[in-house]
Amino acid sequence: MIEWLFPNLRLAQFWTATLDTLYMTAVSGAATFVLGLVLGTALFLTSPGQLLANRPVYGALSLLTNIFRSIPFIILIVLLIPFTRFVVGRMLGVNAALPALIIGAAPFYARLVEIGFREVAKGVIEATRAMGGGIGTIIFKVLIPEAGPALASGLTVTLISLVGYTAMAGVIGAGGLGHLAYLEGFQRNNGDVTLAATGMVLVIVFAIQFAGDLVTRILDKR
Amino acid sequence: MIELHNVRKSFQQGRVSVPAVDGVSLSIARGQIFGVIGYSGAGKSTLIRLINGLEHLDSGTITVGELDVSRAGEAELRRARPKIGMIFQHFNLLWSRTVAANIAFALEIAGARKADIPGRVAELIKLVGLEGREHAYPSQLSGGQKQRVGIARALANRPDVLLCDEATSALDPETTDAILDLLSGINRQFGLTIVLITHEMHVVRRICDQVAVMDAGRIVEAGAVSEVFARPQSEVTQRFLRQLLAGEGVGESLDLNAVDPGQGALVKLTYMGPQARQAALADAIRHFDLPINILHGRVSRTREASVGDLYVQIPASDEKLEEVLAFLRERDIASDIIGREKRA
Ligand SMILES: Nc1ncnc2c1ncn2[C@@H]1O[C@H](COP(=O)(O)OP(=O)(O)OP(=O)(O)O)[C@@H](O)[C@H]1O
Ligand SMILES: [Mg+2]
Q1: Contacts with B90 from chain A: Cβ below 8 Å
Q2: Which residue in A131, A145, A167, B9 has its CB near the most CB atoms, within 10 A?
């Protein structure tokens, strides 16, 4: 059946490409989550009227996130080639894509974190301070749990963009489904391979969306 | 317990500096329920937030027990705050935590031992009457129940002081009274000092011992509730008093034509003063053996005395009537004779 529908598809290769895409998405997703959370928290706390309000710091962080958020991903990859060589050592393979993926997605997620924290009622932070809570309590016991649904739905959106980014990274040789679709499918004129790769990307995106919605719903006690 | 001396705080709004608290001095004794009443923007919230150091004053001194709030650093304030509970108009609960976990939050912050938390939480849930709801989330509770969680959370670390910022302003009248009764009970049971901020006269009347009237950042009048009610000096206080009486339907139509002048003199009694008690009228009835008839009006009880107006008909005239009115006057009940008895 599969051979009849996709005569040019080599299953082992397809499977490896799928795993590569999942690997790149998962690792860059995890790093984006942590970095985005740190950066988003810093953005929120230093913004005007908040606990650590500081105009220059907020301005600098804000500018930085906006710059990295605005650079088209394909250009970001090229710009980061020297940096990636330095960190990863070589410019091929799945790990080569990671720095660009993380630097492209973390500022985006940071903004979503900042917006999520803004939704947390000011009064709850006030109540926490009135009970004697410090900045650590406010971050870990108030902001993050109270913004849980926003953090989860933001992460879902970010992971889906990351799947798209990995496909682009594939074009410059990072492996994965994008690489397969481009090299084996497009360049060798095997339409069936491109189609199979596209189908698998869709399955991955739908699965992320489904899981993300589920987690968001579970966290939402409002 | 709480002393404020010449406290000032202003906010920068654009280019101008707006004084929110403008030279306030107050002395609140241990175990008192102290009300601060004022209209919106009077600076009440700012005042109460200065007491636990959430807001830093510009000048003056504030002490709470042994702690000099006006000089204390942030770390010292944080350590002191578990002993100064606070409740809010909009409850400010964590919606991601259950009732029990919201109460536990206060204990976690104060560094309670993990093993001690469940027992203390159960005690508090019982104290505020929320048995059976400990696993509910705030979104599943009514306003009154949410405020009960707020109160339990504020009491978790056995504070000496409870600050209430418009704690009943988001509640309906019945729930307001239930919450006020709870606060009053806690005050008696634990000897807790309560500072209560409100714009409702009803709240002050129902549970406060002392009241300060605040207007434009200043205290315009302060004293025992019955004193302040009896002799309102400032225009703001008089406005609040009218609000109270109007809210209870006094001064609404009393149909004078329907009063039979043959049944006695029509008299308006005004209850105002520390001695005024509702029971005084019953005493007069017994003392003079006169069937005094209440026609209209309402007297409301404060913690120590009563306020309000009553229209009564007293079947007596001349000297006897004067005797009755003198008897009432001794008990801080003023009278106005509206119509004399006419015999057919
Ligand atoms: N953080 C702030 N920044 C600037 N101005 C403020 C701030 N907080 C309060 N004010 C100003 O201080 C004044 C007093 O405010 P406050 O909130 O203490 O009044 P309030 O008596 O509690 O009023 P309400 O009954 O509406 O709560 C107001 O003019 C308000 O605009
Ligand atoms: Mg206020």
Answers
A1: 121, 123
A2: A131
pTM as predicted? 0.81
Rounded to 5 degrees, φ, ψ at B297 are 115, 180
Instruction: Kindly identify which residue of chain A lies nearest to residue B83, measuring between CA atoms.
Output: A131
Evaluate whether the domain defined by B252-339 bears CATH number 3.30.70.260: yes
**Quick check: A173 contacting B, CB < 8 Å?**
no
Among B47-51, B179-183, B235-239, the minimum mean pLDDT is found in B235-239
**Closest alpha carbon to B327 in B280, B269, B291, B279:** B280
Give per-residue pLDDT as tens, B35-84: 999 999 899 999 999 999 999 999 999 999 989 999 999 999 999 999 99
Nearest CA to ligand 1 atom 2: B11
Confidence of residue B237 (pLDDT cuts 50, 70, 90): confident
How many angstroms separate the CA of residue A125 from the nearest CA in chain B?
Answer: 8
**CATH level 3 topology of B2-244:** Rossmann fold (3.40.50)
Query: Predicted ipTM?
Result: 0.87
Instruction: Count Cβ atoms within 10 A of the Cβ of residue A56 and give its class: 0-12 exposed, 13-18 middle, 19 or more buried.
Output: exposed
- The closest residue, in CA terms, to atom 28 on ligand 1 is B41
